[in-house]
Amino acid sequence: MSRYPNQKLFWEKHHKADTHKAYIDSPSRFAREVEELFPPGATVLELGCGVGADASYFAEQGNTITATDFSEAVIRQNQQRYSNRNNLAFQVLDISKPFPFSKHSYDVVYAHLSLHYFTDSVTRKIVNYIHTVLKPDGLFCFMCKSTDDPLYGKGIQIEKDMFEKEGHIRHFFSETYAKELFNKKFNIQLLESGKEDLYGYPSAYIQVVGRNI
Ligand SMILES: C[S@@+](CC[C@H](N)C(=O)[O-])C[C@H]1O[C@@H](n2cnc3c(N)ncnc32)[C@H](O)[C@@H]1O
């Protein structure tokens, strides 16, 4: 058993309490920006979709989305809310486990604030799963909290750039780390760091788009 707080229980509790409800109708800035890079009518796999605002936006733009999250509660809520959309499917998936999708099946894999919860070794496995399910030339778009975030270094250190604070585990990404993860798998199309309020808190992020090799 892990010595760190169980993140599935942590997130189920949040989603059952509807803590992200205020954001249901607000796709993220990152979603709006990267959607412009998608091929028309793209097949998109979203990882850690939460309340589904970005997935819903991608579907409205004419893409076909499989949006996933390991929280059964949030996936159930999304399935009810979006039951009338035939290009938007929600599915329970723990992204730290091998993906149940065929090789080369998606044009885009998208992860907004959902890739920064894992140790280095698990993160590298996830990047491999993504590399496998993406079509050749497919796009991998992600945004994570960066090592410049105000929460960096707070709480108990788990490993390099990874901390647990009040039951929440975060792995902060540097640009160097993102480049290393992409090495020999993705050609970097965009790599930027910046500051933005996320869920109402001043934050620092890194956003990356890579093209599958
Ligand atoms: C900060 S929220 C971001 C949600 C959404 N992408 C957004 O931007 O609003 C992180 C999400 O990742 C999900 N998550 C955390 N660990 C996960 C895992 N191992 N597998 C799948 N989803 C996970 C949580 O349930 C939560 O919905």
Summarize this entry quickly.
By secondary structure, the protein is α/β, with parallel strands linked by helices. It has helices spanning 7-16, 29-35, 53-60, 72-81, 120-133, 175-182, and strands at residues 43-47, 64-69, 88-92, 106-112, 134-145, 156-159, 162-165, 168-171, 186-198, 201-212.
Tally of extended strands? 10
Q: Supply the CATH superfamily name of the domain at 7-19 and 28-144.
A: Vaccinia Virus protein VP39
Distance between the terminal alpha carbons, to the nearest Å?
37 Å
CATH topology of the domain at 7-19 and 28-144: Rossmann fold
Secondary structure class reads alpha/beta
Strand proportion, as a percent range, falls in 25-35%
Folded structure, characterized:
The chain is of the alpha/beta class and 213 residues long. The chain has a domain of 130 residues: Vaccinia Virus protein VP39 (Rossmann fold). Helices cover 27% and strands 34% of the residues. It has 6 helices and 10 strands. The strands form 2 sheets. The protein has a 7-stranded mixed sheet, with helices on both faces. A 3-stranded antiparallel sheet has the order 6-7-8, with no helix packed on it. It starts with 6 loop residues before the first helix and ends with a strand. The model has no long low-confidence stretch (mean pLDDT 95). S-adenosylmethionine binds next to α1. The site of S-adenosylmethionine has 19 residues, from α1.
